[in-house]
Write a structure and sequence with these properties.
single chain, about 80 residues, mainly beta, two-stranded antiparallel ribbon
Length: about 80
């Protein structure tokens, strides 16, 4: 794997995982300099980090300030 700290291809190994991921831990460390990298997707608990989506408003307010759903008229000024 390429090590950005060493600036060349280096061997990487999986250090002991303090997070309890075991063999699935995505962290690797350069055997030359010790720089850490993540490989693959980070592991999280199911649903971790997800925030429920706020319901989208039915209609947005028009640029004229009129609430959506009401007819808005635009007048040209000469």
């Amino acid at each position: 794997m390429y090590c950005s700290t060493c600036g060349d291809e280096r061997m990487f190994e999986q250090p002991p995982c303090p997070d309890g991921h075991g063999e699935e831990c995505p962290e690797r460390a350069c055997t030359e300099c010790g720089a850490a990298v993540m490989v693959g997707s980070p592991l999280t608990a199911p649903g971790a980090g997800r925030v429920p989506a706020a319901p989208a408003p039915a209609l947005a307010t028009l640029a004229s300030g009129a609430p959506a759903g009401r007819a808005a008229t635009v007048r040209a000024v000469a």
